[in-house]
Every structure is written in C-alpha cells, then in structure tokens.
Design goal:
Elements lengths: L22 H10 L6 H13 L11 H17 L3 H10 L13
Length: 105
C-alpha cells in the first residue's frame, strides 16, 4: 500500500492509496474532468500540467488521467488549490508504477 501523506486525509475525494481507487470514487472523479474552469482556475491547472513530474495527472491519457485530472479541477474549484498544490498532490499520487520521467501523452 502506498498511502498518501496525512495532509490529504481530510479530503474525501483524494484516494488514500493511488494504487487502489474504488470504482465509485473513480467514477465520481472522472465526472469532474469536464468541469469548465474560469481563466484563473485554468491557469492553476495549466501550471500543474506543465510542472508535475509526468507533465499531467498521469503518464498517459488513460482512466487515471481523467480521475486525477477531475480531482485536480474539483480541488481548484472547491478548495482554491493553486497549481503548485496540485503538482504536489499529483506527484505523490502517482500510481502508474513506472518511472517518473515516463511521458507517453
């Protein structure tokens, strides 16, 4: 198990283990992927896309990309996450199992 740092434990939408995401939670987070962000919110999301280890929420545009991308949009919208906060979460929430320099998108 690869538990995330305790600072995320109060956010029910953050999977506690990036390698074991329940289907209901994944479905919920994928639904957030289509959230239309304001210009300022999109700027934070774009920052995270550029600066995260995998240049996005996952190394490839698979279901995890939409799960963690949706989570990012949700956190920016509801908790005013900054781009750097999202980078930090995406980097510790990697669940692909590959090297962090894997960028297939």
């Amino acid at each position: 198990m690869s538990a995330l740092p305790p600072k995320y434990s109060d956010i029910a939408e953050v999977p506690p283990d990036p390698y074991d995401i329940s289907a209901p939670l994944a479905h919920k987070l994928i639904g957030y992927y289509t959230i239309a962000l304001t210009k300022e919110e999109q700027s934070a999301y774009d920052y995270a896309m550029e600066h995260s280890d995998m240049e996005g929420p996952c190394c490839c545009k698979c279901w995890r990309w939409k799960v963690y991308g949706g989570l990012g949009k949700y956190l920016i919208r509801t908790r005013q996450y900054t781009g750097q906060q999202l980078v930090d979460l995406w980097n510790v929430g990697q669940g692909c199992g590959g090297a962090t320099d894997t960028k297939m998108h």
